[in-house]
Design a protein that fits this description.
2 domains; alpha+beta; four-stranded mixed beta sheet; 388 residues; 16 helices
Length: 388
Amino acid sequence: MTTRGAPPIDLMRDERRRLLEQGGASSDTVDRVLQALGRPLPTDCPDPSHLPPGSEVFVPDWITCAVDAHRRGAVAALRDMAVELNFPIAAGLRDTPEYRRLCLDTDTATAELPRGRTDGGPAWEAPERIRLFLHDTGAGLLPVIEAPARADFLILVRALGHRNEPVPVPDSMGANFLNGYANRRRFLAVREARAAGVLHQEPPDSALWKDRLLLLSAGAYSGVPTATMEVSETEWLHRSRTIRLHHESCHVMVRRLFPTLVFGIQDELVADFAGLMEAAGTFRASEFLAFMGLEHFPSYRTGGRFENYLRRLDGHPEAIQVVQRLLVGAAQAVEAFFACWDCTGFRRDKIRVLSALTYLPLEVLAGPEAATRLSRLLPAPPHAQGAP
């Protein structure tokens, strides 16, 4: 179904190049920027009514685990759910026979997987503060493991996202959305069911054992200090948690609406927009740019989240400057357009709003027709006094 007012994607592709060239970028830089930003999108902006209904197949297992965590502690329950948490964080661990047998080999039996172990495992700092719960994203339930102690958050990121390797984690990372965590216990159960002839499916569907979950920490969002946000420390820490939670919830929604989309820096703008609207009831470009380290553009503050995306630009100075300029322009355009949308209006039409912001490429959001494009996809909320 075509969303009324959506520009044809082939014309939009031409417009993206034209907008970049009008900004003074060289042909080589335009190619680099378009490649880095990606955005292989569907022909039409997805209709939110076509969002797959309900939660995904992995959710019931995590509900059971959350109840177990409430009864006997999150770490104990999580070690039964996630085999990797029965091992410490150590370089080269994944190549040891025991780790390979329990976490990697395909001929391991589910009965061999550890349950109820108290020995070994990571060196937790504050295991009693870790919490497991399920959050309603608006596109299904999302398991959330919250670890207020930074050291415990790093354990979870490295164990569940990097096979227990002690990989570096940026200080600006306060949440980690795992889109496709390979649930070892369910993978082996599916394999045994197929071998026993009680599961008939060719080829095997990886959605049966690939989970989406969120790892959540405490602290200031994106490492931005309280003074920058002009609120009390208590209020900023509270808002930081809300921003993180709804930022990642946005990623869940968008992935279900755009299942083939390769995520990039534009999606950080969209997700931060969602988080700020939920946390503060409004979106301010200055706050988003502080998260990215671009609050004093064209200067860049080392440590901002923008540097997490530099490798996509191969360190090309002109391309980096162009993408930074696009982020600034798009953020300002989004702030201007949604100035008449309070949090109530946003929540009422959240999925459609996030779909539109994802569908329109960054160059279009930063261009002179941004308000026109957005207004075609998003009529002003009923209480608004005139559309921007």
